[in-house]
Amino acid sequence: MSTTWKSTNQKPKPASNNTISGTTLPSWSRQQKLAMIVSFALLALLLALSACSKQSEKSTLVGVSSPGAPSATYVPAPPAATAASVAPVPTKKTQAPKKRPANVTYNDPNSGVSFLYPRKAALTSGEKADPDLVAVGDVPMNFVQPGGVAVATVALPADSYPGTDFGSAFFNVNVNRNLSEQECAHFAFVDSRNADGEPVDAEKVTIGTADMETTSNFSASAVKQDEAQYYHSYQNDACYEYVLGMGTEGFGTKAGVEHVDRDQVFAKLEKILATVKVNTPVAHEPTTEPPATSMSGGKE
């Protein structure tokens, strides 16, 4: 009988995949393997998203904080320009009301006379230009021949000198084209207040650039006093007469009434006289009308 000897020097068989350090692991089920694969896939996706987020944040920080890169600060677009901003409407400045001049200019083209007078004074012209004083009423013209025509009269306000016996004052202009230059130098009545009662000759004066003759007339009663100063000037083949008149009343009869400064009143009237200018008057040519005819064509 033959004897078979088994060698004990045989090589050990390699361990299977389920064996770790001599320990045998149980086999994984198919479901567990799928779950493991899905977990790894989700983990990879999360890592990828995290990397993209960090990369975007890094780019933003570099754009804002990097000293070498230009600022990426958002600047809003300017609003659309309106019509008012393109063409602003100029604001209208409020102007203070203009102050009216104290004097007014009077000009009469028919006589050529013009002068300045106070705005507060009252002016009348033409047939209504008859001066008046409190004592004698209407003041007559002082031409040696008739034919004088009233041009204008300026009357000062009655309340010009409150608290005084001032009654009235005026500046008057008359013209007479029927006088010669020699006749214009004389007056119908002159001052007769000298001691002998004789009339006083006219005095030659210069007012502005015009040479004139002057005289005055004075009348008074117990409570009223009137004085008129006359000036004659020959220009444009006519005699021009300027009259300065003043009347007072009430002194001594009313309490608190004082004498008005007569020189002050006449000085105001003389200022009007100093502005007088005489220009060439407007020439009025005579008009000839054709004779009237009847309806039949014959002369009436």
SSE layout and pairing:
Layout: E1 19-20, E2 23-24, H1 30-65, H2 83-86, E3 103-108, E4 113-118, E5 122-125, E6 132-133, E7 137-138, E8 149-155, E9 166-176, H3 181-184, E10 203-207, E11 210-220, E12 224-235, E13 238-249, H4 262-274, E14 277-278
Antiparallel strand pairs: 1-2, 3-4, 4-14, 5-8, 6-7, 8-9, 9-13, 10-11, 11-12, 12-13
Your description of this structure?
With about 300 residues, the protein is an alpha+beta fold. It has a domain at about 105-280: Mog1/PsbP, alpha/beta/alpha sandwich (Protein Transport Mog1p, Chain A, 3-Layer(aba) Sandwich). It has 4 helices and 14 strands. The strands form 4 sheets. A 7-stranded antiparallel beta sheet has the order 5-8-9-13-12-11-10, covered by helices on one side. Strands 3-4-14 form a 3-stranded antiparallel beta sheet. The termini are far apart. Mean pLDDT is about 75; it is low at about 1-10, about 15-25 and about 285-300.
Concise synopsis of the structure shown:
The protein is an alpha+beta fold and 300 residues long.
Key traits:
14 strands, disordered C terminus, alpha+beta, Protein Transport Mog1p, Chain A, disordered N terminus, three-stranded antiparallel β-sheet, 300 residues
